[in-house]
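Tokens for Cobalt/nickel transport system ATP-binding protein. Go.
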Amino acid sequence: MIKLDDICFAYDSTPVLKHFSTEIADGEFVVIKGDNGCGKSTLLNIINALEFAEIGTYTFDGTVIDKKAVKNEQFAKAFHQKIGYVFQNTDAQLFCSSVYDEIAFAPRQMQLDETEIAKRVDDMLKLTGTEHLKERAPFHLSMGEKKKVAVASVLAMNPQVLILDEPMNFLDKKSRQWLVEFLNQMHSVGKTIIIVSHTDDFDKMADRIIEL
């Protein structure tokens, strides 16, 4: 599914990724580790087509993903439906006035009808145990609740791949346990999971650990 071949990337002439190559199969659970500044978050951005390699090739389901490809609005729309990305800073991801509207945002951008949107939102609320938060404003929630809403909002499009950047940051013990169990559940139903984490919470669940 995901193939990264000889990827190089730099910020202001400072190399971050140097000739990095890997493949991630459908349904694989991968944890990415490494020191601060080694390119973990950059790698996630490249996979999600938010940044692009200066050298090397990234292919997703056999299609090269580059600036030219995502300039095609129809292609970019279809591609971003396939990948759900939960940011390290959850506050940067949540901006709607209610949890319902937050989860409904992506389906509305895809111009689905409101009946289908309502079904998807209800399904995600149940899946993440956030039904009681439906009318709440996301910025008033706890960090654990915000993480659940962020996960629900990206899963509303039923992506093939779920990417999370340092998902355990600022979570209490109960929320961390929930997230581990939830991602294990998602993996068991065939989702491809890619996580950047400096903790060992996901190591036993992972099919593979990549060290940068």
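The longest strand covers residues 14-24.
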